[in-house]
Fold GTPase Era.
Amino acid sequence: MHKAGFVNIIGNPNVGKSTLMNAFMGEKLSIITSKAQTTRHRILGIVNGDDFQVVLSDTPGIIKPAYELQESMMYFVKSAFEDADVLIYMIEIGEKSLKDEAFFERITKSKIPVLLLLNKIDTANQELLEEQAEFWQNKVPNAEFYPISALNGFNIKNVFERIVELLPESPPFYPKDQLTDKPERFFVNEAIREKILLYYKKEIPYAVEVDTEEFFEEENIIRIRSVIMVERETQKGIIIGHKGSALKRVGVEARKDLEKFFGKQVHLELYVKVNKNWRSNQNQLKRFGYNQ
Ligand code: GDP
Ligand code: K
Ligand code: MG
């Protein structure tokens, strides 16, 4: 018998969703920073076993509207209820208020099994832990409760085994050997996108998407080529900037991050392409991790 299914990880910014997913994956897949809102896309991580395939999505945090991307991000959070087999609702120790009541309502009414993970218990004493455990179990009685530490791995194996138990019988959704270089490419895309978010006015980041077409790891250097996709010629001009200066800045700064991340010299080639339909093209949207 083979089991396979989708697991969505949701929760407020910085509770440790990406750290948890990386713990499951055994490799660094999502960008982890102490900054909220780092994760924009739902990032798929796939954990394969002989008789199971767990497809993990790290969704953006639940946040109050702050800037324009918010709306599309909330779409991902909402969609977490529609296509998952297991929902992971993550909170961190000390968290007590519910920032988004409407969202919380949906969790308590979820027909999908919910695992309520109380994270960062490595930072708590016994008394606080017991108090929090009681508080949250009362708040979300429909969920199965696990105290965990995503960072040091406490209870992660138990949670993972429970996830596999809860998955439906199904053939795998993805080839079972798929995982090789994709996480690295995802990371490259996210690193570039982060710089675009930093250096351009806000309508620009909203209109672009990044795709890493080549990722070759050699002994002393990683050679990467990524395309920044825009919808219009004018946007292309803005991305590139005067004599290429703006694009160069993105490349230099993203390369620095990537060198730190991979611990290796990186050669990063960036180019910009106009693709009027990237937003509407279903396949491309899927390829970029959107799920509409
Ligand atoms: P996300 O925004 O929910 O994806 O949160 P991240 O995974 O990016 O983590 C936010 C911060 O919390 C990072 O600095 C992590 O190292 C830290 N963190 C995550 N899990 C734990 C944990 O179990 N214990 C402690 N002490 N810190 C954690
Ligand atoms: K974060
Ligand atoms: Mg994250």
User: Anything to note?
Assistant: Residues 3-166 form a domain with the Rossmann fold fold (CATH 3.40.50.300).
